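Something for you to look into today, if you have time. Just paste the record in under my message, thanks.
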Amino acid sequence: MAESTQAPVALESILCTDELYLRSAKPPDYQKENQALVALMQALVNSPQGILQVLAETILQVLNCGSAGVSVLSTNDGGARFYWPAIAGSWKPHIGGGTPRNFGPCGDVLDRNTPLLFKNIERRYTYFLPVTPLVEEALLVPFYVAKKAVGTIWAVAHNDYKFDAEDKRQLESLAQFASAAYQAVGSLDASSQLAAIVESSDDAIVSKNLDGVINSWNTGAECLFGYTAAEAIGKHIFLIVPPDRREEEIAILERLRRGIRVDHFETVRMRKDGTRLDISLTISPVKDTAGRVIGASKVARDITERKRIEGARKEAEVSTRLLQVQDAERRRISRELHDGVGQLLAAISINVSQIKREKSKLSQAAARCADENSDLIEQVLTEIRTMSYLLHPPMLEELGLQSALRWYIDGFAERGKMAVALELACDLGRLPEDYELSLFRVAQECLTNIHRHSGASTASVRLSHTPKEITLEVKDDGKGISEQMQSNIASGESTGSGGG
């Protein structure tokens, strides 16, 4: 690589790991992951020496990025460099290259012992400048042998593709395979390599014969279902099948007898303690050397959390949709107040002004009424403008949440005769439109409740964030919620509380 005299920038200026959790994550594709895992294990048996290249190509396929690869610490020089034994995608011609251990993205990942997301790495590691295409973003994950970090697997975007938290999760899952594959390739025969991969997998991998009797049970299965291998092997697969799902298992066994693979089948299984799990199954027929089906290999993944997240996402989508509908109605009312009633009042104000110019022709009482009406009309116009802005503050769209909160809280404090402190994260920046709208409405509702119910003289609003969440905190020094109301809330008898 050509040397560059350009001064490198600080590491923090090219790190953007926090953004992984702020971006909208794509939904998990467990079917694709399960198929990739099965394909990797088959590749390890068939051509173990090429498994790292297959792994790189799998990363490229699963993450749909521009380039992907494996970086491994050198062993002949005390680990002074990383070399690239496997690359897929646009950077494939650079197989065999590498980076220094003490100054490079792989080294930084091992130093911090955590996945990192980089942007425009050539700004710091200037030796990447001649490497084309350039890096827009690079996501790197460490992998380990005997609890010691020995390398990284990585994915690179060369265009405007943005990695998210789901990409990180998938890459971490593949890093576990990388660890076992790296260790296996150097020391074990193909059968032992496959056994090592199976045993080290976090997924439950189980084999059974065509009668449903369990033949093998890995550590992942022990963790997922709660039975040890000694307790499970030799038992019927009904051990983990709820009674109301047994007909389903019988149908699966029948399909396997016919040599039909079962992909990404979502169902429910049962742990040793009786709790039920949502799981995703990929089941493949196992054949003997003559091609006859003699059993089945099953990869099971716990998707309980995914189901919970999907349910929560659907609820959030409904809530977001309701908020959008409500906001659209607020916009309509705001526009009608401003453009309709406001214009009519402005016209009346002009007429009253004309009358006031001819007060000398009016009686004293009529002149006084004209002055009072003029003042009242101005007061109503001010109220309508305020109401219109509160219904739909244009500042929220134009300048963002922080400016809109400052404007609203200043006006609230003045109208409510209450001191309100506002603390905003200085590095928050603009958020997605629905986030900003939701946070603004929550703050608005909280302060309205404080004004109506709490009897407070002071309040505070704090907006902060971490890499994984945004927090809006509203406090007041009011009387709080009565014990009776708290009891009603706890028992589900009340749906609202007030009091801020």
Remarks:
- Confidence is low (pLDDT under 50) at residues 1-5, 495-500.
- Residues 304-357 form the longest helix (54 residues).
- DSSP finds 15 helices and 14 strands in the chain.
- The CA atoms of residues 39 and 58 lie 9 Å apart.
